[in-house]
């Protein structure tokens, strides 16, 4: 029986890593087994510390032992979890499976093309752009030196039969990696590439096709769905870990951008093979796009006769002419073929944007680094996921945060589950090993003024400094904007000078995080990447400060469009989109506090709307079940006792 086998594998795997099995882990394994047997989709919330990786790996291996001709794919959002699975959890589970039943399950990691070195780029380089980066003889610094080191490493990897995965590469910058890898669009394909027989990407795909268990990421899963199942080998069941990230990652994979600099850069790549008229037209199209963007308002584009849409038609026509002009030539004209692929990409993006399809949201954005550019994202990915993922296989979706507002319906709807009354999924909360009510306090600063657009108020800054002082540092500050994080850091450095306050932007985030972890009395302030991407168990983090409810920006065109679409369909756009977005981030952010059975601390939300607004109940239900207070002195006293400072 698969269920009994999964239980035995789980017990052996937990023992093998010296762990202790959690009750929720066993419940999860049973539920996953049921999904593999029945085909009914499962949303399973497994709190931090449950051991959810082994909770789905054990039944996956049991199912593959029972059905050796089948394949199960696991998709993660982050490289960190992918690495953990590859180096720790899967080897432990596979070894346990061998101990229990004597069967070995084959497994592989599969990533997107640009995560592997391209032997064509490594061995031949591509044009003056790469040559200009290479160091002069005797030099050993800069991007050029990184490129040389990466080339040498990639050759060693290929010779040893490995895959030259970027995660295993020597230290490098993105600019250096771009010189030894190839974008999907510009790949010649194994049949045309002179090194196709040795291609490391193709080897990774062969290994995946030969394996029963394949670990990939959300982005490649999205690409597979978008392109009709061409990115992944065929599979029979799917586990999506970190499932709270899935909608965002699929949206990102299905989104495109276009700016004048991109058009000009591609045009210049193509000039050598184009007639003068076609080349000038392509270059001029970049200027036309710039003029259209300058004449437009920042925000959503909806007018088919507006300046931006007219400029897109100009770019589309110029790119089409360039693609035609680059056709033909010899098979070994690598640079020409790659230039044609880049021009084709510009054409495809301009074509998609110029249509103003109701299923897409197109908008003008502006930033200091990139200036103005056009963005296009799908209004919804629910249909894509429903038709290309959930209709084909049983799917397990798991995360520590899937119950938003107290149940699974918000997340299920965003994923396209339960459409038109379909009863094809179930949700299970297997709990957490942590006792949130005794381990943590949720302090809501009801007495503070509600947030406004004028920046962080003096009262909020004073509250942050007071809380940080009471916690004696040990603080993770999660802010809705970089400006707010920087203002709070400046204030605390002035008013609590004896404590180190690190702020995102001071240095690379990895370095700041390491410094925060190594200095328990330090504090770290930052924005969105800290809400979900940091794990600080132990006394490093006694206090998590959330300056305001993390609603989407009111001028975010994609979120506005999604709210409007829900409202037009008869729903509550604010609750379905904005409140659900905020609830998910609050769940993730407040979850930074308690990471082990011995952690203690306070989550301080400095936005009174959490207890005064009607939607506050929905948001609080999304957060861990801390004991709650609105009394400032209670929170201050608890923090001082944690540091042994209470009188």
Account of the 3D structure:
This protein is α/β, with parallel strands linked by helices and 647 residues long. The protein folds into 4 domains: 2-106 and 211-249 and 381-429, Rossmann fold (3-Layer(aba) Sandwich); 113-194, no CATH class; 256-374, Up-down Bundle (Four Helix Bundle (Hemerythrin (Met), subunit A)), CATH 1.20.120; 436-642, P-loop containing nucleotide triphosphate hydrolases (Rossmann fold). The chain is 49% helix and 13% strand. It is built from 27 helices and 18 strands. The strands form 3 sheets. A 7-stranded parallel β-sheet has the order 3-4-2-5-10-1-11, sandwiched between helices. A 7-stranded parallel β-sheet has the order 14-15-13-16-17-12-18, sandwiched between helices. Helix 3 (52-66) crosses helix 4 (79-101) and helix 12 (260-270) runs antiparallel to helix 15. The termini are far apart.
Work out the helix count: 27
CATH class of the largest domain: Alpha Beta
From the spread of the alpha carbons, the general shape counts as globular
- Give the full name of the CATH homologous superfamily of the largest domain: P-loop containing nucleotide triphosphate hydrolases
Q: What is the distance, rounded to the nearest whole angstrom, between the alpha carbons of the first and last residues?
A: 60 Å
β-strand percent reads 5-15%
The appropriate CATH architecture of the largest domain is: 3-Layer(aba) Sandwich
Percent of residues in helices? 40-55%
Which structural category fits the helices and strands? alpha/beta
